Amino acid sequence: MSNLKDAFRNGKAFIPFITCGDPDLETTAKVIRAAAENGADLIELGIPFSDPTAEGPVIQGANIRALAGGVTTDKIFDLVATIRKDVKTPMVFMTYANVVFSYDAERFMARCCETGIGGIVIPDLPYEEKEEFSDVAKRYGVDIISLIAPTSANRIAMIAKEATGFIYVVSSLGVTGIRSEITTNIGDIVKVIRENTDVPCAVGFGISTPEQAQKMAAESDGAIVGSAVVKIIEKYGRDAAPYVGEYIKSMKDAVRKA
Amino acid sequence: MSQSKGRFGVHGGQYIPETLMNAVIELENAYNFYKEDPDFNRELTELLNNYAGRPSLLYYADKMTKDLGGAKIYLKREDLNHTGSHKINNVLGQALLAKKMGKTRLIAETGAGQHGVATATAAALLGMECVVYMGKEDTERQALNVYRMRLLGAEVIPVTSGTATLKDAVSEAMRAWVSRIDDTHYCLGSVMGPHPFPTIVRDFQAVISRESRAQILEAEGRLPDAVLACVGGGSNAIGSFYHFIPDEGVRLIGCEAAGRGIDTFETAATVNTGRIGIFHGMKSYFCQDEYGQIAPVYSISAGLDYPGVGPEHAHLYDIGRAEYVPVTDDEAVNAFEYLSRTEGIIPAIESAHAVAHAIKLAPTMSKDQTMLITISGRGDKDCAAIARYRGEDIHE
Fold first, then answer.
1. To probe the interface with B, which of A51, A138, A205 has the most B CB atoms within 10 Å?
2. Which of B8, B120, B130, B361 could, after both became Cys, cross-link B149 (CB 3.0–4.6 A)?
3. Which of A128, A152, A154 has its CB closest to that of B2?
4. pTM of the entire structure?
């Protein structure tokens, strides 16, 4: 079992997403520390992929910048290993199936285990394909995070029953990115999840403001924010850490009220 | 327990976001129902025969045969179909299926523009809305097809992400589909992507070999010794191979785009240079680096300029049933010119890859052997680009 449950012991969780290596790994290290110091309960670290089909333009841009800067899966594991010496905040990876597959799933999970990565979000690995990695992940105590979408309907119970770590509830149709309004009835989805599991669930996709985060966290166990964090890093580049820290503090304060 | 579906050996599957899962399940259920439905099949046959112009000819290329001095060469003339390529076979099937499913809108990716034109055509005919995603680089090298799609009432969205070619058009079409599922069918153009697409597209393209097998038996009284087709994602190739797969004496040869050569980085020969991976919804062979980053592939042919190959081809390769050979830009352009001069048939630059391999293979075969080459499309769209390749600047 991973340590991901710890992320949900501090009230409603705030979960920022950071693309590793955008614009370089030194900045990523500073941003991770700033996130941890300012109340992030769980940090989602993106391993960039050349063709991120589930991402909107903001995170696509981060992937391109990171890969252009020469980041690789190995360099990211090295970064996490270093950070882990002083940052105890639970962490998960977010990446695409081919990144794990081509690294060799066994080797990938072994390094996750060594570096204290508790889980992996893989947007192109639905329930039907999770056996691609689930057995080896389980052996190394890494949770494959299940995603549930607004279109999941009759699939929610089936997915929730086998979920471990936490459940990632996708707030809206479409790709990642900032949205002015989230129209999906999250409460209804969470209700079905709750009937089937005690695994915590956090909502992501489209959240950028403290108000949205508070609303989503009120209906679940936490809020996940990607594009809004990545935008700050895009804007401030190597100087982004304090700005990300400040943003995360405001978001954590908001979800605390939920 | 989860159950992975749509496997060809280890390849295939459904590696897509959860948001799309119910949509592909709905598609699979609808397809399984309608493929057995006599009314659906009657309507589709009617469209294929009286709108698209099927069956397509099997033409004996006498001059080419004599010139090469080996195997008898037959051309399966998919270039004569309405819209000028094999793409219409699949599109009419999928568009009709989408209409039966109550969808009112088709989206599609396109490389050379042939699939986009076919989708725009079917949408116009069946009264559906149509949006086509096309790499910006391809909109420039295939400007005529962009105009054709717009003329047919489709919206063409140039894709600027990544390498701005076919793979990025597929990614963008997938992103668009995730955003709007209710009324929209993603009319995928090749035997790729998540299950059930590789199976659906293959079944609709299998009409090629259903006809050609009967036609060659009629003409020669025996099966061919080799069947050749170009392979990008592989839809015309799987259609050309499918009914010959059980005929073990028939060599099945897929001709991949080697671009500037398989020993260079400027290639799109996936089976020859790629590794197994997971991308665009499927497990198959992909051109990629050691960390699984998809490679920026290259070919003169916008339709073959794709870093992956359909999962059924990957499987046919694994089990040794089909061979996949690389053909360079230079060889393809030479073949484009050769077929034009020798037989008076201007092939699509994609199809010219198959012709190029035939030019090498036919002389090594005996005169009592036969080979069948699928001419997947017509080459009018390529004339300006080939002229440029030869250093001549013509204005369309």
1. A51
2. B120
3. A128
4. 0.96
How many residues are there in chain A? 258
CB atoms inside a 10 Å sphere around CB B350: 34
Burial letters A142-169, b for 16+ CB under 10 A, else e? bbbbbbbbbbbeebbeebbebbbbbbbb
Q: Which of A56, A129, A152 sits opposite B15 (nearest CB)?
A: A129
ipTM: 0.96
What are the residues facing B203 on neighbouring strands? none
Pick from B4, B5, B181: CB nearest A131? B4
Under DSSP, is residue B294 helix (H, G, I), strand (E, B) or coil? strand
Per-residue pLDDT of chain B (396 residues; tens, 9 = 90+): 456 799 999 999 999 999 999 999 999 999 999 999 999 999 999 999 999 999 999 999 999 999 999 999 999 999 999 999 999 999 999 999 999 999 999 999 998 899 999 999 999 999 999 999 999 988 987 888 999 999 999 999 999 988 888 999 999 999 999 999 999 999 999 999 999 999 999 999 999 999 999 999 999 999 999 999 999 999 999 999 999 999 999 999 999 999 999 999 999 999 999 999 999 999 999 999 999 999 999 999 988 999 999 999 999 999 999 999 999 999 999 999 999 999 999 999 999 999 999 999 999 999 999 999 999 999 998 998 899 999 998 865
Find, in chain B, the residue whose alpha carbon is nearest to that of A156. B18
The conformational region for residue B13 under phi > 0 = left, psi -120 to 50 = alpha, else beta, is left
Backbone φ/ψ region at B116: left (φ over 0), alpha (ψ -120 to 50), beta: alpha
Chain A: give the shortest CA distance to residue B2, in Å: 5
Given an 8 Å threshold on Cβ–Cβ distance, is B19 in contact with A129?
no
Per-domain boundaries in chain A: 4-256
Rounded to whole angstroms, how far apart are CA atoms A188 and A155? 14
C-alpha–C-alpha distance, residues B4 and A254, integer Å: 41
φ/ψ (deg, to 5) at B8:
-120, 95
- Domain A4-256 is classified in which CATH homologous superfamily? Aldolase class I (3.20.20.70)
Nearest-CA distance B35 → chain A (Å): 24
Chain B residues whose C-beta sits inside 8 Å of any chain A C-beta: 2-5, 13-23, 161-162, 167-168, 171, 174-175, 178-181, 275, 277-281, 286, 288, 290-294
Chain B partners within 8 Å of A101 (Cβ): 277-278, 292
Helix, strand, coil shares of chain B, percent, nearest 5, are 45, 20, 30
Q: What are phi and psi of B248, to 5 degrees?
A: -65, -20
Question: End-to-end alpha-carbon separation of chain B, Å?
Answer: 57
Measured CA distances, A45 to A48, A119, A245, B342 (Å) = 9, 10, 16, 59
Whether B78 is a known active-site residue: answer: no
> Nearest CA of chain A to the CA of B278: how many Å?
5
